[in-house]
Amino acid sequence: MKKILILVCCLCNLIAYSQFGTVQPSYSSPGGTYSNPVFLAPTSGGNWGTNSSFVNNYNNTWNRGTTSSGGYGSSGGYDPRAGIRMFDKAIAKNSKDTNAYYGRATEKFRLNDYPGAIEDFNKVLELDPSRIEAVYGIAYTKMFWKDYYGAIQEFTKVIAAEPKFAEAYFNRANSKMGMKDYKGAIADFDLMMPMILPNTSVYTRRGFSKYSLNDTAGAMKDYDKAIEIDPKFADAYYNRANEKMDLGDYKAAIADYSELIKLMPEVAEVYYNRAVAEDQLHDAQAAIADYDKVIKLTPNDESAYYNRGIIYLNQTNYKKAIADFDKAISLDAKFGAAFYARGISKIGLEKKESGCSDLNEALKFGFEAAKAQIEKHCN
After folding, report:
1. How far is CA 277 from CA 187, 222, 249, 251, in A?
2. What are the domain boundaries of the chain?
3. Binned average pLDDT, 10 residues per bin, the chain of 379 residues
4. Of the candidates 113, 124, 136, which has an alpha carbon nearest to the alpha carbon of residue 51?
5. Which H or E run contains 308?
6. Beta bridge mates, 14
7. pTM value > 0.85
8. What confidence score (pLDDT) does residue 30 get?
9. If both were cysteines, with which of 10, 168, 210, 355 could 346 make a disulfide (CB 3.0 to 4.6 Å apart)?
C-alpha cells in the first residue's frame, strides 16, 4: 500500500504530514514473493538427510528435473508442457513408474497447476510410500497455493522422517509467516540455522518475524547480519529501511534506500519510499526529484502525483500542484484527498467557485476535512 501525504491546512498556514501505517515490507507471504528458491548450504560435514536416496531424489527431480531409468528429462530447456507430454508417454508404458509421476508433478507445479501436481505426488506415495520427497512436493505445492495450514502439516511429516533436511524447516517457517505465526516461524529458523552456513534469506525473514512481534532490536541485528554476509542483498536493505521508517528514523531509512537504489535502480517503490522519508525531513527538492523518478517508471501511479502535488502546494506553487492533482484524479476519479488539495490550490489562485466545487467532491468521497474548509471559504 502506498503512503500519501495528507493535507490539513488553512491558506495562511499550509502544513503537510504523512499518515503512516506500516510501510509494506518486501514480502508478506510465502505464496507471494517467496516464489524464488533459496539455496541453503549445509554446514561442513553436514548431511541433510539420513536417507541418501531421499536427498538424491530431491536434488535430481525437484530442482533439476527428473531423469528416470528410461532416460527422459523434464528440464531440458523446453516448455514444461513438453515435459508433461513425455511423462504421459512414460506412464502409458508403465503405469507404476513413480519417477514419471514425480516428474510430471514438478512440471505441473511449474505451470501453476497445483491440484494436478498434488494429485501426481499422491500417486507416487500410493505406489511407494517411502518416497518422502513426494510428501515434500505436496508441502511445497500447498505453500505456493497458500494452503499454509496444509503445507505445515506436510512439512512436519518430512521433518519427522528427515530431521536434518534444512529446507523443510525453512519452508515450514515461511508457511507459518503466511499464517502470521511469527513465533512459530522464528522457532523453525532457529532450529535450522545450525544445519546451514549463514544465509541472508534466513536472517532477513527471521528479522521480519521478530519485527512483527515488536522485537525491533532483534530484527535489526538479523538485517545487519544479512547485509554483513552479503552487502548486496536487497531484501535486507529494503526491510531494514521500511522498519526504520516506521520508527521515525528517516535519515537512516534514506541511507538504506539509497544503497538499495544502487542495487536496483529501476524499482519505483524504493524511490517512492525514499521520497516520503525526504519529505519528512523537509527536503522538498530531493523528494520532488524522487517522485519525478517514480512517475517516469510508473506513469499511472496516482499517489506519486498527489504527493508531489502536496509538496508544490506547500510551496504555494498552485499551478504545478493543480496539474499534479488533475493527473491524480484522472487516474482515480474518487480520490477525495486529491479533490480536497486541488480545491485548496484553486482557492489559493482565487478561483473560489471551482475550488469549492472540488471541496464538495472531496466531502462526497468521504474526505471529512473538507467540511471545515467549505464552511470557511464556500458559505
Report:
1. 34, 23, 9, 8
2. 39-198
3. 44 26 26 41 45 52 43 54 92 95 93 96 96 94 95 97 92 95 98 93 96 96 97 94 94 97 94 94 97 97 94 96 97 95 96 96 94 91
4. 136
5. helix 302-314
6. 9
7. no
8. 25
9. 355
Q: What are phi and psi of 18, to 5 degrees?
A: -90, 135
Burial class of residue 286 in the structure, from the number of CB atoms within 10 Å of its CB (0-12 exposed, 13-18 middle, 19+ buried):
middle
The two counts, helices (H) then strands (E), for the chain are 19, 2
Residue that the C-alpha cell 532450529 belongs to: 191
Q: Cβ(121)–Cβ(134) under 8 Å?
A: yes
* Single-letter residue type at 21: G
d(Cα 137, Cα 104) in Å, to the nearest integer?
A: 12
CA separation for the pair 181, 184 (Å, rounded):
5
Strand, helix or coil for residue 265 = coil
Give the whole-angstrom CA distance, residue 310 versus residue 5. 7
Determine the 3-state secondary structure of 255 from DSSP: helix
CB-count burial class (<10 Å; 0-12, 13-18, 19+) for 284: middle
* Cα dihedral 253/254/255/259 (nearest 10): 100
Fold of domain 39-198: 1.25.40
- Phi and psi of 214, rounded to 5°? 70, 20
Whole-angstrom distance, CA of residue 120 vs CA of residue 103: 9
End-to-end CA separation in angstroms for the chain: 36
| SS3 of residue 17 by DSSP | strand
Residue 266 grid cell: 529501476
- Of the candidates 187, 186, 178, which has an alpha carbon nearest to the alpha carbon of residue 209? 186
Residue 259 C-alpha from the chain's centroid: 19
Phi, psi at residue 217, to the nearest 5°? -60, -45
At residue 80, the pLDDT reads 87
For residues 190, 194, 195, 196, the Cα torsion angle rounded to the nearest 10 degrees is: 90
Phi, psi for residue 13 in degrees, rounded to 5: -150, 85
Pairwise CA distance, residues 345 & 97, whole Å: 72
Report the distance separating Cα 35 and Cα 43, nearest Å.
25
The closest of 102, 97, 109 to 132, measured between CA atoms, is 102
User: Whole-angstrom Cα distance, residue 142 to residue 135?
Assistant: 11
- Residue 193 has a pLDDT of 95
CA-nearest of 255, 266, 256 to 235 is: 256
